[in-house]
Amino acid sequence: MKVLLMYRDHDFDLQQKLPSNEEALIQDLELNTLFNAMSLGDNFLFEVAKKSVLSSVYSDLDTILYRQDVLKDSLKNSSIVRNIYNIAVEAIENEKKYYFSIFTRYPAAILHSSMDVLHMFMEMLKKLKSIADQHADKFESEGFKRFFTMLKKELDDEYFESIQNHLKELEFRDGILISAELGKGNKGVNYILRKQEDKKQSLIDRIFSKRPDAYTFYISERDESGARALSDLKDRGINLVANALAQSADHILSFFNILRTELAFYIGCLNLYEKLAQIGEPVSFPIPVASSERRHSFKGLYDVCLALTMEQKIVGNDLNADNKDLAIITGANQGGKSTFLRSIGLAQLMMQCGMFVPAEYFSANICDGIFTHYKRKEDATMKSGKLDEELSRMSDIVDNIKPNSMVLFNESFAATNEREGSEIARQIITALIEKRIKVFFVTHLFEFAYSFYNKKLENVIFLRAERRNDGKRTFKITEGKPLQTSYGEDLYKKIFGESY
């Protein structure tokens, strides 16, 4: 049985390798805040959220749209989806109660333990079948429709009846019938468990029917060696059946594990959706386009992690950067530039893993890699200067980046003087956009920003943190040419007062 709620043609791999820059993405975009909101303290949900979001750099357009449809169904039928998830969790937790590792080398113990597990699994599967029968028509996505169709087809009445009959037969209420052959040294070989004769005969037929010749011997109650020998014969006979039954239980357990894992992503999305709804923040399903295109436009985009941290609505931004390879963001200190940059990265990751995004409208091309280059604190060990450390991280990015990726720069290359920092930034950014890499660059390096502004390039857009005449920050990012000041004087007055 296949789940296929994350991909059309294969299961979601919780052990998959994450991008080499996962730690930088988590730190710079404050992703743990997002993961915590999705998991609500559940470690398993946290892990699935982390793997789903960070592995989205490998997503394709078809997978994104496939997941969006499944998530839309989940939002419309949240209680049903949560019920299915809870059934999977219950089945997995119950299975652990029947596992006795100290007995696993004894076929009889394996057999009885596996039978108990299968009886329990049958009840869980019947619950899933009942949900499919009652609610399948409420779902419209390809993923859920195929999932419910599979349940109805695989878990029909004939399947459950067949399982019940097999389990009843394996109780061996009338004893165990085993055949064997004599091998070298008259040792028993080729032990085979045989099916009991049909017991549906009438009493008269059973009494007078001809039976094959048979010999019977009895073991004394005090004969421990004989009892052990008989037990050994029994284990040899049921060994293959016990292993087959254990494999069947493992197969069904694997189904529940995959179901739990794939639904965990959507449960995390439901948790996040409900949290943002409480705050009053809007979400929407983005419109992704192929990575070869250049599209980046949105309305009301906000930093979802900041909203979750403050637990209140925050300022959103609008932008039309279609057909742009480079966005240079300048303006007043503490004007919302870093928050805006983080909202870009978060929305891109959320879109690429098939989630809704924190915006009223959002459309962007898929990126074949997402990288961040943020300023870091001084190296406490003094093994290298800040500029060396920045260039080292930039070198790592260059080693792993490829065309149609995206890089978010925040105050990069400012560890040296204005002229050198601007020249380093100019050469690096020029090389990146020549290789079809999308760049968002927050900076106070005026020479760098103005050098691009003077070129009047059609694929470059200039944004600025808005500041009113009285110095008040609106936290809005609007189009505007670079300014030579970041209005540090405003912060000075705010901290030390007008008299200084």
UniProtKB/TrEMBL annotation:
Keyword Metal-binding in record: no
Superkingdom of origin: Bacteria
Pfam families in UniProt: MutS_V
GO cellular component terms, semicolon-separated: cytosol
Residue ranges occupied by any DNA mismatch repair proteins mutS family domain in the UniProt entry: 324-497
GO BP terms, alphabetized: mismatch repair
SMART domains: MUTSac
UniProt keyword terms in alphabetical order: ATP-binding, DNA-binding, Nucleotide-binding
Keyword ATP-binding in annotation: yes
SUPFAM superfamilies noted in UniProt: P-loop containing nucleoside triphosphate hydrolases
A GO molecular-function descriptor: ATP-dependent DNA damage sensor activity
Protein name, per record: DNA mismatch repair protein MutS domain protein
